């Protein structure tokens, strides 16, 4: 009888131990998800690039991601993230992998500047992995060749419960401590490039002008009618000769410019003409085809530094 009681006591003790360990495991796993430890964290490589402990959930930086022949700009301020354009395609998950490396697991605001697939191509792929809350996009028709792709994108965005916002000139979006203002967009333009959503980003006490693929006609208009004075220029249309006019450079007066462009691309971007105009304007130029990922890191004393990733 005593032996039977001993066995029951032993079983009870084992069951209790199992319950305790199981609960500890559950709490640990839940903690990891809540902290984002399992999903993502800044990589060691990135931390060494920025300096130890310089990149965390409160970091403020701008990244021109090397996506080949296309555009992709990531804005990170405090705990908020925005992304402007998504490259041509993202079959190799370049954008998603970079997001993980940066410790980003959701996007507050996505912007598609215009309906060319070197700007929206990677959207459908990224949204399979990352929650996107809002999408700023002109919903009106795309060029015939890209209408189907645009319809599919809007369908995917709707299925993923993305809030779609149509641009209005003057609208301002808060991204942590940064602000993104819609400066201009012209839906009546004949060329898709000239319908680009043009924005000014206010970040770290600096102004960054992003013109999508807008060409000289639009550059002339905004130079004459809008304050486009900036510190950093995201060079329009991948450095094509049709953009980065002298008129624009005189009005914008950037000290730094970034060209997002694929190495040895078939369009011969950036053009010699655009490069020459930037040179004469005395602008420090960085190119994703030669420099890879380009980070702008902001400091508390209203200065910034350019870091090649
Ligand atoms: Zn483009």
Q: Outline of this structure?
A:
By secondary structure, this protein is an alpha/beta fold. The protein has helices spanning 2-35, 44-50, 94-102, 117-120, 123-127, 144-159, 216-225, 246-252, 272-280, 288-291, and strands at residues 60-64, 73-77, 80-84, 106-111, 131-136, 163-165, 172-175, 178-184, 198-203, 206-210, 232-234, 256-259, 284-287, 294-298, 304-308. The protein has 2 domains: 1-38; 39-308, 4-Layer Sandwich (Metallo-beta-lactamase, Chain A).
Word description of this protein:
- With 309 residues, the chain is of the alpha/beta class.
- The protein folds into two domains: 1-38; 39-308, 4-Layer Sandwich (Metallo-beta-lactamase, Chain A), CATH 3.60.15.
- The protein has helices spanning 2-35, 44-50, 94-102, 117-120, 123-127, 144-159, 216-225, 246-252, 272-280, 288-291, and strands at 60-64, 73-77, 80-84, 106-111, 131-136, 163-165, 172-175, 178-184, 198-203, 206-210, 232-234, 256-259, 284-287, 294-298, 304-308.
- Strands 6-5-4-3-2-1-14-15 form an eight-stranded mixed sheet, with no helix packed on it. Strands 7-8-9-10-11-12-13 form a seven-stranded mixed sheet.
- Residues 23-39 have low confidence and may be disordered.
- Zinc ion binds next to α4.
